[in-house]
Please model this.
Amino acid sequence: MTQLAVCAEMVFLDRPLIERVRALDDAGFAAVIWDLSKHDVDALARSGARFSSMTGYLRGTLTDAEGADELLRTAQQATKTAEKLNCPRLNLHGTGLDAQGLPVHPSHATTGPMWLTAFQTLSRIAELGQQAGVTFMLENLNAAVDHPGVPFGRAADTLALVEAVNSPGLRMNLDLYHAQIGEGNLIELTRRAVGAGLVAEVQVADVPGRCEPGTGEINYPAIAQVLADVGYDGSIAMEAWASGDDHLAIERFRQAFAPSPNL
Ligand SMILES: O=C(O)C(=O)CO
Model:
């Protein structure tokens, strides 16, 4: 059944994280968490909250041999944390991001060798996911506003890699906020990626401003209809700031996806 989740790193910012995940749980949402090295994992595990996804690595990159080994090593550690939190999805980016979201290894052109190494690295990651019983996800990002220089940020590139690896241990984290900034054509993108069974989480925020659905230019009720039409039953997560009141923002998110018969 489709599960609604909210990124605990972006709402209820006046409270400690542990209280944010509890507030989300009380409101019926699972939580999305970023860098677990910054959080008290045992306290989160004891909180009773549900976790939809978390960052699935600490360091590393897809595109060179040394970075790939580091990515695999820290992804393996992340699977242990995921087990403690009972968190089924672990998120990856084309390269590590710093505290400002900037790529640790920026690249403004992706070469043939980079594509091949990324494919091999992701194949290893997918195997790790299957062994650990979790799904790693490669997230599309945007280079124009939030993550300049991130490799494989375009949804089309992310989807091509996930499709090529073709393993249940690796799926796409389809971030519609980033895709709207980078490429648009969201309905067709959603129909194609989700319809092919390649998406494990759909993340949402509106453009511009990255606030809750309904505050910008994206027609989220139409996206919800597409998700229902293709029978999506994965996670839908709001990775957005609250434009005003936090409770109102998460209710607007819930309402945007309420028409789905899977909910
Ligand atoms: O910008 C995003 O979507 C991220 O996941 C940053 O970690």
Q: What stands out?
A: Strands lie at 3-7, 30-33, 51-55, 89-92, 135-139, 170-175, 199-204, 235-238. The longest helix spans residues 65-85. The CA atoms of residues 181 and 214 lie 16 Å apart.
